[in-house]
Each structure stands twice: as C-alpha cells, then as structure tokens.
Amino acid sequence: MEVFFxxxxxxxxxxxxxxxxxxxxVFMVPVLIIFFGYNIEIAIGSTMSALVPASIIAxxxxxxxxxxxxxxxxxxxxxxxxxxxLGAFLVxxxxxxxxxFIFSVFVTIIGVLLxxxxxxxxxxxxxxxxxxxRSAPTSFIRKNRVKKMAYRLNVGLVAIFGFISGVVAGLFxxxxxxxxxxxxxxxxxxxxxxxxxxxxxxxVITSFTxxxxxxxxxxxxxxxxxxxxxxxxxxxxxGNIIKQRYPPKNHIDKLIALGLLLAxxxxxxxxxxxxxxxxxx
Length: 281
Hints:
mainly alpha
C-alpha cells in the first residue's frame, strides 16, 4: 500500500512540476522523509533518479512542440555550474542555515502575495528598466517561428541569472528549477511555453549529474526508487497532455505562485530535517 501511495504522490508532484516547469524535487524529498520514513540521503537519491526520466519525457514532448530554447538553456546552465561551485565553497564562510531560513521565508511570502494578488494589467513591453537592460548592446532577439513568438534577451543578464541560480543551488543545497521559470517569465518576458520547456530541458542535465553522483556514493536503492521513478514518469506524461489540451496561459501566474509557496514550505521542512540529520539536497 505504501508503494502505491508513493507512486500516486509521484504522479501528482511530477504532473504539477511539469506544467509549471519546476520539476518537483523540492516538493517530493520532504514528503518521502516525513510521511514514508525515508532516510534523507535515500530520499534525495531516489528523487534525483526519478527526475531523470521525467525531465527527458517532458523534454521529448517539448521537442516535438518546438518549445525549448536551447541557447537560453545553455546560457543559464554554463554559468550555473560555476555558481554552484562558488556556492559550495561559501558554505564554510557564511551562516548558511540562517540564510536558508530567510530564503525559504522570502519564497513563501512571494508565493502568498502572488496567490492573493489580483491579476494586474502588465506594463507595456517597451517600457521600464528591464526593457532598457534587455536592449543593451549584448541583447538579441529570439524568434520561435513555429509558435510565432519573439522575445528580446540580454546575454549578460541571462548569464548573471544562471550564475546566481547556481550559487543558490550550491549554497542552499536545493535545485534552482523553482527560480528559473518565474524569472524567465517575469524578468525576461519569455512566453510561458518556452520558459517552462527550457527549465525542464536544463533539469535533464542537472538531474542526470545529481543521479550519477548519488549512485556513486551509494544513495540509490532501486527497490525504494522505482515507485518514484514510475510515478514521476507517468506524471510527466500526464502533465504534458494536460498542458497541451488545456494550456494554462491564463492561470500560469497562480500556478507558479502556488509552486513557490509549496517550494518555500518544502525548503522549511527540509531545514527542519537537515538540522537533525546534517545532510542537504
């Protein structure tokens, strides 16, 4: 019965994460530890192993849908690697636990504010500070002819964001997926289809790297991982089918807000567990 519930929760978490481009790891790890008694190392390794096929499945759907921006994904991922290394080194020099708590509270508050706020009319696309930054000399226009979309990006801004998300991942021990989608949509003004698809494409690389690392140190037990892997795979398929049949364009802000709220709560739960076990994800 426990296996069935893990499988079912995996479907729900992965389906929701696929729709909003978060992945779902930050939601699943606390659930496995608190409700199913997983050791924290095994919970992290199991979730990481489940994210690999789930992100690949989602990316195959998005590849067929021509929604992935590979250039933006690369511009984010490469600096993120350097940021992750720096963040790991900063752990020894900064009060990480306190920073993690402040960060989780901040993310939770942002999620609550976005959930409670009324939908405001977006400012004109050709106005504001971010428009002028995106129009700097290192800017370029990305065109998706299949989707008939175009958006302007700044190489430096995208790279800086990638680096910061990497620092957050290395410093706080959490994935940066729940940061990437909101910033790509709100800050870079990327269409939500492209932002979520690109975030999940980045997750293919990061989840595979994490899976290999956890496999080598012995944190993958297939008997405990397979129900999560199966649930995440089914959830990724279901999430993509739902996203295609019922595009969440008018509700994406609220869905992302809910995701941020759950992510913030997930990080808080993770901190509570980590304070007892001394391990992070």
